[in-house]
Design goal:
- With about 1350 residues, the chain is α+β, with helices and mostly antiparallel strands.
- It is about 40% helix and about 15% strand.
- A hairpin with a 5-residue loop joins strand 23 and strand 24.
- Helix 34 (about 1005-1025) runs antiparallel to helix 35 (about 1035-1055).
- The longest helix is centred in the middle third of the chain and has 39 residues, at about 865-905.
- The radius of gyration is 37 Å and the shape is elongated.
- The two termini are about 75 Å apart.
- It catalyses: ATP + H2O + phospholipidSide 1 = ADP + phosphate + phospholipidSide 2.
C-alpha cells in the first residue's frame, strides 16, 4: 500500500518471455484491488473518512467540549453514545461493502490461466501473471489482461470476442494477429519468440491502440485490431495465444472503472443550508444566554458568593459568561441531532428495497427485476421535470422485422384492418425448407410473385441476399445462424432467406447462396462499405456466367439521386410508397443495381487499389472512388422495416406528460427515423399546433430559425388565447416554478423584443414540438446560443435531437441543469448513453439488447421503458413525500425538546443547568422518538399506488418543491418553539403552587423535570400519530411501543436498584414513581398536550375543509367509492391495454408530410475485413427471440396544465377566478384511452350521502353562469372527471391561499378520514351540492 509509485510512463517496452527485463520497469502486476481497506488500515482510514463529514466533526467538537468540566453540565456519554453508535453503524456498513469487494477481488485474482513458462504451459493464478508473459486462452474464457494476439487456431490468426462487459455492445467482434506471428502456432515456436513491443502508456481509450512490434530486425505496426482487452470473452475460437502488454490496474478495463460522480439530492443541499442556519441560531441563543449570565452574575450573583462561590478559574462575570456560552452550545446542540443523518440513510435504504421488491416492475420475459443501484437519490425521483431518453433500445425494442416492400412499383405487405378479419400468417416451410420459422409475413401475393419467377422480384431478393456484411454459420444442414452488424441487416437477409434466396456462407472472395433450391456461388469482387456520410453500401459480384453486377442499398435521399434518368416514373411511384411507409413509422431503404462490363470493372478496380494504398486521406479517396461507380443505377424497389416500440411506451409518455414532465429524445439516428418514432410513441401528433425543424448549418442560421420559431409560438399563442373567453392574462404553459413573476396580459407581453422574457415563454399556449439536427445542435450548444435554444426548446411540449454524439447528449443535459435549475433524468440502454446518464441528476439504465454498460453506470435499472412511470409517479412521489414529512417532524420534535432548556435558562440564573435527566437527553433521539419517525419515513402514503398513477397531477408538488422548503422549515420550527413554550410554562405555572395530598409542595426540580419530559414524549407521539397518513402494524408497534418503552426505562433508571449500584450516576432516584402518582401531574400533562395539539388539529380541520390539496380530494373520492364498495379502479396500463389496441402493435397510416428513415446501423461494417483475404467464420451465438407485440393505444391529445402563478382579479360575484377555470375552453377532449386514464369515468360514483369537498375552484370557464345543481353522486363523479382533466391542481389550490404541508399541514390519516366522512354525512343533509362556488 505504501510502495513508492513509479514515475509516469511515456512509452511502454515489453519483451516476450523475459520477466527479468520487464521487471526493471516496475510494471503493475495483474492483481487488482477494488477494496478500500485491510485489517490494519480499516479503523484509522474509516474514521478519517467519516470525520471528513462536517456533522461528525461537529459532534466530535462537542464531545471535546463536554470533557472540560468547567463548561460541561452534561456527562460525556450523552454525546459519545450517539456518536459511537453512528460511527459504528457506518463502519459496519463500510466493512460489509468492502468485504464483498475483497471477495470479488479474490475470486477474480484466483482465476486460473495457462502461462507459457520455460517452454511449457503452467496453470497460474491471474494475480501471478506478469507483463511479457505469453498466455493461452481457450474458447469461452475471459481474457486475463490486455494481450497482443500472437496466433490463433483459426485461419489467418483470427479470433472472435464478445465485449459486452467492456463497452456494452453484445455483437461479436473480430480480432486478428500480425501476419508474421500468426504462424507461431505451437508452444515451441512461441517459447522461442523474443519480440519486443514498444507502445503507448496505459490509458482508458477502448477503441485505440498504437504500438510497434520489433522482431528479427523488422518492425510491424500494431493497432486495436491486434489487441484482446481484459474483460472480453473468447468466442467460437478453439484457442489463441497472446502477449501480456498491460496488466492489472493498467488494463483499459480498470482504467475505465473510475469513480462515478457523486450525486446529491436537492433535499441534501437544502439540509446542509438549514443545518448552517440552525447552527447560527444555536450560536445566537448561546450569546443571549451568555449575556444573561453576565448580567445576572453582575447584578444578582454576587449575593450568592458567600455560600455559592465561583469555580477556581472564574474570577469575574465576563469569564463566567464566556464559559456559559460554551456550556449552552453543548446543551442546545440537540437542535441538530446526529441521529438525523443516520435516520435519513435508513429511510433511503428502505425506499431502495421497495423498488427492488416491486413485482410490478419485474419483467418476467427477461427475468429482470428493477434495481436501485444507489440509495441516495430516491426522493429526487419525485421531483423530475425533464426526461432525456435514447431512442433505439429504450423507446423501441431494437428488434427489427421485415414489414413491407415495394418492387417495380408494386407494394407488398399491406397492413390489416384491426376491426376486420385478421390475415393468415404465411407458412414458408412447404416452399422453402431453409426458411426461418420465426419470420412473419402476411401478404401471399409476394410469395406468389416469387414462385412464378417474376424477374424483378428475384433481383430484389437476390440483392438482399448478397448486399450485406452478415456472417453465417451452419451448425447442421439447414440450421443457419446469422450475425449482423445491425438488426436491420439481419431482418433483410432473413426476409430474402424465407422468400427463397438463402445466404449460406461466405469466404473472403465468394458468397454462397441457395436460390430457389439451387446452390449458387458468386465471386465477391468488392465491398463498398457503409458509413454515416455515404448512407449506403454496395457489393460488386461476378456470377457463374461471368456477368459482373453492382448491388446497392441505402437511404432514399442519397440513392434516388444516383439513378439513371430512365427510372423517373418508377422513382415517383416508389417515392410515394416510401412516404406511406415513413408515415407508418417504418425504417426504409431503397435498392438499386448496375450491370458492369469487364472493362469498366478493370478500370475502376485499378483506381480502387490505388486509393486503398494511399498513405494520406485514404478514407476520402476511397469515398470518391465509390462515388464514381455508384452512378446510373437501376431502381429495384424499397424495403420497410419496423423497429417495434416497447410495450406501453405511448401510454407511459402520455402519463408522464400529464404529470408536467417534459420528455426529450436524444438519438444518433437520422431526423426522419427519429421523427417517425416520435409519431409512433405519440410524442408528436398530427394535432399539434406546429412542429419546428431546426437544420441550419451556421450559427447565424440556427439563431434565426430559433427566433422565428419563438415568434411563431408567441403569435399563435396570442391568436389562440384571443379566441377564448375569460382567458385574459392566462397562457397554457408547460409548467411553472417558484419565484416567477406575475403573468401579464398577452398583448403587453407580445411587444417584448426577442429574446422574450422567460415567464412569457413559459406561458406559451398551444402544443409545439422542436426537432433539431446534430450539426445545428452543435451551434445551439455554444455559449452565446444556449439561452436562445433553451428559451425556445423549453416552451415546446416535445423536443427531438437527431444525429447527436454521446458528448452532445451530456451537453444538452448539463445545459438544462444550468439554465432551468430543474431535476433531470436520463434513460438509455447503450454504451453511447453512459455520458448522458452520468451527467443527469438521475441516471436510469435499461437492460436491453446493447449490453450492460448503461446499467453499470446508472442509478436505477429495469428492463422496460414503461416501468419509468411507476418509478417516478409511485416510488419517487412516495419517497419525496415520506422524506419531507420525516424532516418536518424531525426538526419539530427536536426544537420542542431543546428550546425548553432555553426558557429554563431564565429561571436558573443562566447557569447552564439542564431541565431533563441526562439519561433522558441521551435516549430521547436514539430510543424514545427514533422508531416512530423511521416508520413514518419508510411506510407512509397519502394515496395508494393506483391513485398515484390515475392522477398524475399529484406529482406536481415535488416538482415545485412544496412539501419541504425554507418556508415549511420555518413553520416546523415555529411549531416546535410553540410546543416548547407550552411544555415549559404550563408545568411551571401549575407545579409552582401545587402540593401533594400530604401537603408537601411539588415545586421541586425532579418533579418538574419528569413532568416536562413525560409531556414532551406524549405530545410528540400524538403529533406523529396525526402526521402518519398510512398505518401499518409496524407504525402501531413503534409509536405506542416507544411510548411504553419511555415509561419502562424511566422507571428502571430511577429505581432504588440502580441507585444502590451506582449512587453517583443516578440522581433522580424515586422521582418517577412519586411524580407519576400525583393526579395534578397527569392533569398538567393532559392540559399541556391539549394546548399543543388542539390548535394544530383545528388548523388542519379548517384547511381540509376550506382549502384541500389535490391529494385530499383524491382521498375523498376513494372513501366514497369504498363506501359503495365500488372497484378501486384499474391501473393506467391495464386500462389502456383494454381500449383501442391494434393488432401487432401497428399504427394506422397518417397522411402527412414525408417522413422517411433508412434502416442501417451507424457504424462501419465488416466490409474491409471480409475482403482482406481472411476466413470470416461466424460464432455460434443464437439469436434471442422476443415477443414483438406491444400495446398501441394512446392518448391522442395530451392535456396542458394551466400556468397558475398569475394573479387574477376577483370576478364580479366577488369570488376568485383561479387560472384553471379558463382551461376547459381550449383543451381538446381525450380519446377513448384517456377516458379511462383515471378509472373514474367508467365507474361513476353513485353516492347518496357523500359530496365533494368545497374546492373553491371553478369547474367550467366557458360560461359565466354558475353550474346547475347536481345530486351528490353526480358531484362526486364530476369531481373525478375534473381531476382527470387536470382542472383541479395543487397550483389552483395554491392560488387561493397556498399549500402549507409539513409540520402544520393536514395529514391523510385517521383524522382526515374522520373529517371527510363527517363532511359526507353533513352534505347528505343538504340538497344538491355544487362542485365549485
Amino acid at each position: 500500500m505504501f510502495r513508492k509509485r513509479p514515475p509516469p510512463e511515456e512509452e511502454r517496452k515489453v519483451r516476450a518471455n523475459d520477466r527479468e527485463y520487464n521487471e526493471k520497469f516496475q510494471y503493475a502486476s495483474n492483481c487488482i484491488m477494488t477494496s478500500k481497506y485491510n485489517i490494519v488500515t480499516f479503523l484509522p482510514v474509516n474514521l478519517f473518512e467519516q470525520f471528513q463529514e462536517v456533522a461528525n466533526t461537529y459532534f466530535l467538537f462537542l464531545l471535546i467540549l463536554q470533557l472540560i468540566p468547567q463548561i460541561s453540565s452534561l456527562s460525556w456519554f450523552t454525546t459519545i453514545v450517539p456518536l459511537a453508535l453512528v460511527l459504528s453503524i457506518t463502519a459496519v456498513k463500510d466493512a460489509t461493502d468492502d468485504y464483498f469487494r475483497h471477495k470479488s477481488d479474490s475470486q477474480v485474482n484466483n482465476r486460473q490461466s495457462q502461462v507459457l513458462i520455460r517452454g511449457s504451459l503452467q496453470n497460474e493464478k491471474w494475480m501471478n501473471v506478469r507483463v511479457g508473459d505469453i498466455i493461452k486462452l481457450e474458447n469461452n474464457q475471459f481474457v486475463a489482461a490486455d494481450l497482443l494476439l500472437l496466433s490463433s487456431s483459426e485461419p489467418h490468426g483470427l479470433c472472435y470476442i464478445e465485449t459486452a462487459e467492456l463497452d456494452g455492445e453484445s455483437n461479436m467482434k473480430v480480432r486478428q494477429s500480425v501476419s508474421v506471428t500468426s504462424e507461431l502456432g505451437d508452444q515451441n515456436n512461441l517459447a522461442s519468440f523474443d519480440g519486443e513491443v514498444v507502445c503507448e502508456p496505459p490509458n482508458n481509450k477502448l477503441d485505440r491502440f498504437c504500438g510497434t512490434l520489433y522482431w528479427r530486425d523488422k518492425k510491424y505496426t500494431l493497432s486495436n485490431q491486434n489487441m484482446l482487452l481484459r474483460g472480453c470473452v473468447l468466442r467460437n475460437t478453439e484457442a489463441c495465444y497472446g502477449l501480456v502488454i498491460f496488466a492489472g490496474p493498467d488494463t483499459k478495463l480498470m482504467q475505465n472503472s473510475g469513480r462515478t460522480k457523486f450525486k446529491r439530492t436537492s433535499i441534501d443541499r437544502l439540509m446542509n443550508t438549514l443545518v448552517l442556519w440552525i447552527f447560527g441560531f444555536l450560536v445566537c441563543m448561546g450569546v443571549i444566554l451568555a449575556v444573561g449570565n453576565a448580567v445576572w452574575e453582575r447584578e444578582v450573583g454576587f449575593l450568592f458568593q458567600s455560600y455559592l462561590p465561583w469555580d477556581p478559574p472564574v474570577d469575574n462575570f465576563l469569564f463566567s459568561a464566556f464559559l456559559s456560552f460554551w456550556s449552552y452550545v453543548i446543551i442546545l446542540n440537540t437542535v441538530v441531532p446526529i441521529s438525523l443523518y443516520v435516520s435519513v440513510e435508513v429511510i433511503r435504504l428502505g425506499h431502495s428495497y421497495f423498488i427492488n421488491w416491486d413485482r410490478q416492475m419485474f419483467c418476467s420475459q427477461c427475468n429482470t427485476p428493477a434495481e436501485a443501484r444507489t440509495t441516495t437519490l430516491n426522493e429526487e425521483l419525485g421531483q423530475v421535470e425533464y426526461i432525456f431518453s435514447d431512442k433505439t433500445g429504450t423507446l423501441t425494442q431494437n428488434i427489427m422485422s421485415f414489414n413491407k416492400c415495394s418492387i417495380n412499383g408494386q407494394t407488398y405487405g399491406e397492413g390489416s384492418d384491426p376491426l376486420g378479419p385478421q390475415p393468415k400468417r404465411l407458412d414458408f416451410t412447404p416452399f422453402n425448407p431453409l426458411a426461418d420459422p420465426d419470420f412473419c409475413f402476411y401478404d401471399d401475393t409476394l410469395l406468389e410473385a416469387v414462385k412464378v419467377g417474376d424477374t424483378h422480384t428475384h433481383k430484389f431478393f437476390r440483392l438482399l441476399s448478397l448486399c450485406h456484411t452478415v456472417m453465417s454459420e451452419e451448425k447442421s444442414e439447414g440450421e443457419l445462424l446469422y450475425k449482423a452488424q445491425s438488426p436491420d441487416e439481419g431482418a433483410l437477409v432473413t426476409a430474402a432467406r424465407n422468400f427463397g434466396f438463402v445466404f449460406r456462407s461466405r469466404t473472403p472472395g465468394t458468397i454462397t447462396t441457395t436460390e430457389m433450391g439451387r446452390s449458387v456461388t458468386y465471386t465477391l469482387l468488392a465491398i463498398l462499405d457503409f458509413n454515416n456520410i455515404r448512407k449506403r453500401m454496395s457489393v460488386i459480384v461476378r456470377n457463374s456466367e461471368g456477368r459482373i453486377c453492382l448491388y446497392c442499398k441505402g437511404a432514399d435521399t442519397v440513392l434516388l439521386e444516383r439513378l439513371h434518368p430512365c427510372n423517373q416514373e418508377l422513382m415517383n411511384i416508389t417515392s410515394d410508397h416510401l412516404n406511406e411507409y415513413a408515415a407508418d413509422g417504418l425504417r426504409t431503404l431503397a435498392l438499386a443495381y448496375r450491370d458492369l462490363s469487364e472493362d469498366e470493372w478493370e478500370a475502376w478496380s485499378e483506381r480502387h487499389r490505388i486509393a486503398a494504398k494511399a498513405a494520406s486521406c485514404r478514407e476520402d479517396r476511397l469515398a470518391a472512388t465509390y462515388e464514381q461507380i455508384e452512378q446510373d443505377m437501376v431502381l429495384l424497389g424499397a424495403t420497410a422495416i419496423e423497429d417495434k416500440l416497447q410495450e406501453g411506451v405511448p401510454e407511459t409518455i402520455a402519463v408522464l406528460s400529464l404529470a408536467n414532465i417534459k420528455i426529450w429524445v436524444l438519438t444518433g439516428d437520422k431526423q426522419e427515423t427519429a421523427v417517425n418514432i416520435g409519431y409512433s410513441c405519440k410524442m408528436l401528433t398530427d394535432d399539434m399546433t406546429e412542429v419546428f425543424i431546426i437544420s441550419g448549418h451556421t450559427v447565424q442560421s440556427v439563431r434565426q430559425e430559433l427566433r422565428r420559431a419563438r415568434d411563431r409560438m408567441i403569435e399563435m399563442s396570442r391568436t389562440r388565447d384571443g379566441k377564448e373567453e375569460g382567458v385574459e392574462g392566462c397562457f397554457m404553459g408547460n409548467g411553472f416554478r417558484e419565484g416567477q413573476g406575475d403573468s401579464r396580459g398577452g398583448e403587453k407581453q407580445l411587444q417584448c423584443p426577442p429574446p422574450p422574457p422567460s415567464n412569457l415563454m413559459d406561458n406559451i399556449s398551444g402544443e409545439f414540438a422542436l426537432v433539431i439536427n446534430g450539426h445545428s445542435l452543435a451551434h445551439a450548444l455554444e455559449a452565446d446560443m444556449e439561452t436562445e435554444f433553451v428559451s425556445t426548446a423549453c416552451a415546446c411540449k416535445a423536443v427531438i435531437c437527431c444525429r447527436v454524439t454521446p458528448l452532445q447528449k451530456a451537453q444538452v443535459v448539463e445545459m438544462i441543469k444550468k439554465h432551468k435549475k430543474a431535476v433531470t433524468l436520463a434513460i438509455g440502454d447503450g454504451a453511447n448513453d453512459v455520458s448522458m446518464i452520468k451527467s443527469a441528476h438521475i441516471g436510469v439504465g435499461i437492460s436491453g439488447q446493447e449490453g450492460i454498460q448503461a446499467v453499470l453506470a446508472s442509478d436505477y435499472s429495469f428492463s422496460q421503458f414503461r416501468f419509468l412511470q411507476r418509478l417516478l409517479l409511485v416510488h419517487g412521489r412516495w419517497s419525496y413525500l415520506r422524506m419531507c414529512r420525516f424532516l418536518c417532524y424531525f426538526f419539530y420534535k427536536n426544537f420542542a425538546f431543546t428550546m425548553v432548556h432555553f426558557w429554563f435558562g431564565f429561571y436558573c440564573g443562566f447557569s447552564a443547568q439542564t431541565v431533563y435527566d441526562q439519561y433522558f437527553i441521551t435516549l430521547y433521539n436514539i430510543v424514545y422518538t427514533s422508531l416512530p419517525v423511521l416508520a413514518m419515513g419508510i411506510f407512509d402514503q397519502d394515496v395508494p399506488d393506483q391513485r398515484s398513477l390515475e392522477y398524475p397531477k399529484l406529482y406536481e408538488p415535488g416538482q415545485l418543491n412544496l412539501l419541504f422548503n425554507k418556508r415549511e422549515f420555518f413553520i416546523c420550527i415555529a411549531q416546535g418553539i410553540y410546543t416548547s413554550v407550552v411544555l415549559f410554562f404550563v408545568p411551571c405555572a401549575i407545579l409552582s403552587d401545587a402540593t401533594q395530598s400530604t401537603g408537601v409542595p411539588l415545586a421541586d426540580y425532579q418533579t418538574f423535570a419528569v413532568t416536562t419530559a413525560t409531556a414532551l414524549v406524549i405530545v410528540v407521539s400524538v403529533q406523529i400519530a396525526l402526521d402518519t397518513g398510512f398505518w401499518t402494524v409496524i407504525n402501531h408497534v413503534f409509536v405506542w411501543g416507544s411510548l411504553g418503552l419511555y415509561f419502562s426505562i424511566m422507571l428502571a433508571l430511577q429505581s432504588q436498584t440502580l441507585f444502590g449500584i451506582f449512587p453517583n450516576q443516578f440522581h433522580f432516584v424515586g422521582s418517577a414513581q412519586s411524580t407519576l402518582l400525583q393526579p395534578v401531574v397527569w392533569l398538567t400533562i393532559a392540559l399541556a398536550t391539549a394546548i399543543c395539539i388542539v390548535p394544530v388539529l383545528a388548523f388542519r380541520f379548517l384547511k381540509v375543509d376550506l382549502k384541500p390539496q389535490l391529494s385530499d380530494t383524491v382521498r375523498y373520492t376513494q372513501l366514497v367509492r369504498q363506501k359503495k364498495r365500488k372497484p378501486a379502479g384499474r391501473s393506467v396500463g391495464g386500462a389502456w391495454r383494454g381500449v383501442g389496441s391494434v393488432s401487432e402493435g401497428r399504427l394506422g397510416a397518417r397522411g402527412s408530410s414525408r417522413r422517411s428513415g433508412y434502416a442501417f446501423a451507424h457504424t462501419e461494417g465488416f466490409g474491409e475485413l471480409i475482403t482482406s483475404g481472411k476466413n470470416m467464420r461466424l460464432s455460434s451465438l443464437a439469436m434471442a427471440t422476443f415477443a414483438s407485440r406491444h400495446s398501441s393505444s394512446w392518448i391522442d391529445t395530451l392535456r396542458r396544465k394551466k400556468h397558475s402563478h398569475t394573479n387574477t382579479p376577483p370576478s364580479a360575484s366577488g369570488e376568485s377566478s383561479p387560472a384553471p377555470s379558463c382551461v376547459s375552453g381550449s383543451i381538446p377532449p381525450l380519446s377513448n384511452s384517456s377516458s379511462v386514464l383515471c378509472g373514474s369515468q367508467d365507474a361513476p360514483i353513485e353516492e347518496e350521502t357523500g359530496a365533494a369537498p368545497d374546492t373553491q375552484t371553478a369547474s367550467t370557464s366557458s360560461t359565466q353562469n354558475p353550474p346547475a345543481p347536481a345530486p351528490a353522486s353526480e358531484a362526486a363523479d364530476g369531481l373525478a372527471q375534473t381531476l382527470n382533466a387536470g382542472v383541479l391542481t395543487p397550483a389552483a389550490l395554491r392560488s387561493q391561499g397556498g399549500d402549507s404541508p409539513g409540520g402544520w399541514t393536514i395529514s391523510l390519516g385517521a383524522v382526515q378520514e374522520a373529517l371527510l366522512r363527517w363532511k359526507g354525512r353533513a352534505s347528505a343533509s343538504n340538497s344538491p351540492v355544487k362542485l365549485a362556488e
